[in-house]
Specification:
The chain has 449 residues and is of the alpha/beta class. The chain has 4 domains: 54 residues, MutS, DNA mismatch repair protein, domain I (3-Layer(aba) Sandwich); 155 residues, Rossmann fold, CATH 3.40.50.300; 139 residues, Rossmann fold, CATH 3.40.50; 59 residues, no CATH class. It is built from 17 helices and 19 strands. It has an 8-stranded mixed sheet. Strands 14-19-18-15-17-16 form a 6-stranded parallel sheet, sandwiched between helices. Helix 3 crosses helix 4 and helix 10 runs antiparallel to helix 12. The longest helix has 21 residues.
């Protein structure tokens, strides 16, 4: 009889029969298989009519769920397509569209041990609350100094990766929140080292600038459902408007910008380098580690970009927007922390960056939710992985060319509430790199560019 068991993130198959999913390991004199092929191996051996002793799974105790989760029509459609795909695959829905509830419904339906993998500690807290509210069970947690397993457990990507050798055989369903992270080189092994036959990926933006999302189907399944913001805005998400305001740099700012950007352009011309895509720019970045001239050009480009992003004219326009929307909840988005602090001091509004302690961040967001703080300024830390209370106005003073960043920032405003009309306002510097950057980041949304 064949014997299959778990060994530090892999499967070992002992016996006289091999499998196309593994390789012979002379160190242990048996076949070693990546854990994510667990279901494939069982199916193959059963079809081959092989008798097998399966000692792979060591699961936490089952618990009794209580409560009922009702899905909206589009959520139910997403859940149904995932189920018909063998309980595997990726679901793409906008921020605020209720991806969490689709996952909770799947957990409730399958009634199997589940691991939810999230990018931040804040998301651990959010999932823990949702699990208690909707399933009436306490969630286990792995991350932030905690390590207790329950039928439904939440872990950060880092913790799920670090403890994969021991946790890989504890769950039958694994849910990856913000699944685009999984395709990174550091996190792919999470999917490979866990046996869970049922897999769900959740994200608002499937594509990555490095195109590594093409690796996700083999790890968790195909993209089985996708819906755009424009399809849900109005009925399920708040309707929204987009406005772009173009400002001119001051003469000293323009001079500083021109001098730095000229260094960058001259280098590209001399080396005959064409930057037509994110991949091209990444190749250029790689050269800066060994080429001093390339590094000098990159630093000049960054200095020019900072001038454009931090212009005084932007702050003057921001002041007018804050005055005009003084009865609304406003989130101000920037790219760099120094502008966050500058705005915070100038307009006396709370700031959130990656340096802000979790306790202070929670306090700020709680006061923002209650209305005690009507305005919050942040860099990129609220773009993803934080449950931001309802806001109706977003002002973008700077960002990357990432479509994901734009979608996530817009999503922060779209949570449906009464007759709310969300407004996204982008302030960019005229005749600078910001113009092209802005065009790239919202090219798929339909905002007027």
């Amino acid at each position: 009889m064949l014997h299959l068991h778990f060994d530090k993130g892999t499967l070992l198959l002992k016996g006289q029969v091999g499998t196309p999913y593994g390789k012979w390991d002379p160190r242990v004199e048996c076949y070693r298989i990546k854990a994510h092929h667990y279901r494939d191996v069982l199916d193959y051996l059963h079809q081959s009519k092989q008798q097998i002793r399966d000692d792979v799974a060591e699961l936490p105790p089952l618990e009794q769920f209580q409560g009922s989760i009702k899905l909206r029509d589009y959520q139910a459609e997403a859940a149904d397509k995932w189920h018909k795909a063998g309980n595997r695959g990726v679901l793409v829905l906008p921020t605020a569209a209720g991806k969490t509830f689709i996952a909770l419904k799947a957990i409730q339906k399958l009634k199997v041990q589940t691991l939810i993998v999230v990018p931040t500690l804040d998301l651990i807290d959010q999932w823990r609350r949702r699990i208690k509210e909707n399933l009436n069970v306490e969630a286990g947690v792995v991350g932030g100094g905690e390590k207790n397993l329950r039928m439904v457990t939440v872990a950060t990507y880092d913790s799920a990766c670090i403890h994969a050798e021991k946790l890989g055989n504890k769950f039958m369903l694994i849910i990856f929140d913000e699944v685009h992270h999984l395709a990174s080189t550091g996190y792919m092994q999470i999917a490979e080292m866990y046996i869970a036959p049922y897999r769900m990926g959740l994200t608002a933006t499937y594509e990555r600038t490095d195109q590594r999302e093409s690796l996700l189907p083999q790890l968790i399944g195909d993209l089985v459902y996708s819906v755009d913001i424009k399809d849900l805005a109005g009925e399920h998400l708040s309707p929204y408007t987009y406005e772009k305001i173009v400002v001119e740099l001051t003469p000293p700012e323009q001079e500083a910008y021109n001098s730095q950007i000229e260094i960058f352009k001259k280098f590209l011309q001399e080396r005959r380098i064409s930057l037509r895509s994110a991949a091209d720019f990444q190749k250029f970045i790689m050269t800066t580690g060994r080429d001093p001239k390339a590094r000098e050009a990159l630093l000049a480009r960054n200095k020019a970009m900072k001038v454009a992003l931090n212009s005084e004219a932007k702050l003057a326009v921001l002041a007018k927007q804050l005055e005009f929307y003084n009865n609304e909840k406003i989130i101000i988005f920037t790219l760099y922390n120094d502008l966050v602090y500058r705005i915070s001091h100038r307009f006396l509004v709370p700031a959130i960056t990656h340096h802000t302690p979790r306790k202070e961040r929670r306090e700020i967001l709680s006061n923002f939710e209650s209305g005690a703080y009507p305005v919050v300024v942040t860099s990129q830390v609220l773009d993803e992985g934080v449950d931001v209370p309802d806001a109706s106005v977003g002002v973008i003073l700077g960002g990357t060319g990432s479509n994901r960043e734009y979608v996530q920032r817009l999503g922060r405003l779209l949570r449906k509430k009464d007759e709310k009309l969300a407004r996204l306002i982008e302030i960019i510097s005229k005749e600078t790199m910001e113009v092209a950057t802005s065009r790239r980041r919202h090219r798929k949304i339909g905002g007027n560019s």
